[in-house]
């Protein structure tokens, strides 16, 4: 697996699946998900950041253009996977409110509170991040 400094994120504003984005994705017998091909003049090729042989180790899905029904269905399909939710406090409760009165922290120590900020009207309120770990 690549070092963390070799990892990069590429944002596709209008993702419609790997075919329309210009990617051929391959699942290897070793459990890796690889970019097999980047089609010329595709959004992936024009990004200049996607290369044949890249391992796909994670994805960020922005909910801003999804209906709440689509978002709920997507979340329901993610059983037994590492998922981090980015949340925005929309109520009058403190950011670290817990019904159990426990501190606000990630069990893995990987999520951090970014403070109460206001996103733009078209920005997502929740970001789903799923990082895949290759099977060894």
Automatic annotation (TrEMBL):
It is found in: Nucleus. InterPro entries: Myelin_sheath_structural, PDZ, PDZ_sf. The keyword Plastid does not apply. Keywords: Nucleus. The keyword Ribonucleoprotein does not apply. GO terms for biological process: regulation of RNA splicing. GO terms for cellular component: costamere; nucleus. It comes from the Eukaryota. Residues 9-76 form the PDZ domain. This is PDZ domain-containing protein.
